[in-house]
Amino acid sequence: MSQRIAFAGAGNMGGAILRGLLQAGHNPQDVLFFEPFESTAKSVADLGAVRYSDFGKMANEADVLFLCVKPQIFKAVASEWNASAQSNTSKPEIISIMAGVSRQKILDALNFAHGDVVRVMPNLPLTVGKGAIAIASDGVSQESLEVAKELLSTVGITVTVGENLIDAVTGLSGSAPAYVFEFIEGLVRGGVKMGLSRPVAMQLTLATIEGSVELLKKSGKDTGELSAMVSSPAGTTIAGVQVLEDAGLRGTLMHTVEAATLRSQALGK
Ligand SMILES: NC(=O)C1=CN([C@@H]2O[C@H](COP(=O)(O)OP(=O)(O)OC[C@H]3O[C@@H](n4cnc5c(N)ncnc54)[C@H](OP(=O)(O)O)[C@@H]3O)[C@@H](O)[C@H]2O)C=CC1
Ligand SMILES: O=C(O)[C@@H]1CCC=N1
């Protein structure tokens, strides 16, 4: 039998990982979930994943258990889970995606956790196999690290960092899909303001972003060199770039990542 993967919480991110694993070919019958919100649970059950109403039973049958609830409710929820799992005989490997909640806090809070709790920080594009996922390595056995890496690399790229950097990852790749969507929306609105239809503006924006990312990856050139290649002297691009400079785009983005990182740190306090 293949690994049985369980999800405590199948909301935006738990559901995204679950969907990603199914898309990567994981057997739905080996994907288990515990989720109180009816409409969310229904949409996940419709994919063939197996819903449990008894958390302890699910945890007992799972090889790997993803913790995907909000950090703010983790403490309260942990006592419910402990009560439900108190007679469990087996202990799954636990992978937490919660922002801010340290590995030690998880170990302290869950009576069914063994030493190998792995903290990871994924991001939403893993739903389409394009996630950027960081795995915190400290205190985790090589074997558990490999289990997490193998599972998550089916839905994106993985990097390994020290746990002290997980908040920074949360501020950057964990949160940045939202920044990117805001950026895209801004460009699209700019196009609409200048007379393009929204569908055409969206098509051009997305192709430009995809193409620019591909070029950056493949050209061996850095961002400055590529930007200079677009910016003709006294041309259109440099006129636009000056607006970005005046608005402090890069500084704003740096503050953005910093604010989200600090918020992640605060959630763990
Ligand atoms: N969203 C993202 O892009 C990312 C999120 N994360 C992390 O993922 C975690 C989940 O975030 P997100 O998916 O956005 O949040 P959601 O609120 O979408 O999902 C959490 C789910 O957990 C459910 N839940 C509540 N109580 C329990 C319980 N006792 N047992 C099991 N499930 C329960 C919630 O149900 P109900 O609504 O009924 O309360 C909800 O459906 C957070 O810790 C966040 O830090 C990490 C990286 C990216
Ligand atoms: O906004 C949040 O708190 C979560 C963590 C990373 C992305 N979403």
UniProtKB/TrEMBL annotation:
Protein's UniProt keywords contain Amino-acid biosynthesis: yes
Enzyme Commission designation: 1.5.1.2
Example GO biological process: L-proline biosynthetic process
Reaction(s) catalysed (UniProt annotation): L-proline + NADP(+) = (S)-1-pyrroline-5-carboxylate + NADPH + 2 H(+); L-proline + NAD(+) = (S)-1-pyrroline-5-carboxylate + NADH + 2 H(+)
UniProt GO MF annotations: pyrroline-5-carboxylate reductase activity
Cellular-component GO terms for this entry: cytoplasm
Subcellular location, record wording: Cytoplasm
Pathway annotation from the record: Amino-acid biosynthesis; L-proline biosynthesis; L-proline from L-glutamate 5-semialdehyde: step 1/1
Domain Pyrroline-5-carboxylate reductase catalytic N-terminal: 4-100
Function, as annotated: Catalyzes the reduction of 1-pyrroline-5-carboxylate (PCA) to L-proline.
Family, per entry: Belongs to the pyrroline-5-carboxylate reductase family.
UniProt protein name: Pyrroline-5-carboxylate reductase
Lineage: Bacteria, Pseudomonadati, Fibrobacterota, Fibrobacteria, Fibrobacterales
